[in-house]
Amino acid sequence: MGKLTLNLIFVTVTIKRIKKTREQRQHDEEVFRLYEEISAKRAEFQIRNF
Q1: Nearest 5 degrees, angle CA 23-CA 33-CA 37?
Q2: Which helix (H) or strand (E) holds 19?
Q3: In degrees rounded to 5, what are phi and psi of residue 31?
Q4: Quick check: 28 and 20 in contact, CB under 8 A?
Q5: What's the farthest any 2 CA atoms get from each other in the chain?
Q6: pLDDT score, position 21
Q7: Per residue of the chain (50 residues), what is the pLDDT tens digit?
Q8: What distance in Å separates the CA atoms of residue 13 and residue 17, rounded to the nearest whole number?
Q9: What is the dihedral of CA 8, 14, 16, 22, to 10 degrees?
């Protein structure tokens, strides 16, 4: 019984983590875009200065 309950809790938490709102997806995309932009600028800086 305990293991079944634990498995159900795990599945429930996993499903909740998978379901993202549109705002969360947009935020994630913006963060990813900014990260990529900063990484490109850092690489460009390193190429110019080293």
Answers
A1: 155
A2: none
A3: -60, -45
A4: yes
A5: 63
A6: 82
A7: 556 676 777 777 777 767 778 888 899 999 999 999 999 999 999 999 87
A8: 6
A9: -160
Cα separation, 36 vs 44, in Å, equals: 12
Q: What is the pLDDT of residue 2?
A: 59
Structure tokens at 26: 């947009």
Angle at 47 between CA 46 and CA 50, to 5 degrees: 70
Whole-number Å distance between alpha carbons of 16 and 23: 15
Using the structure block, give the residue that is written with the tokens 């969360």.
24
Contacts of 42 (CB under 8 A, 6+ apart): none
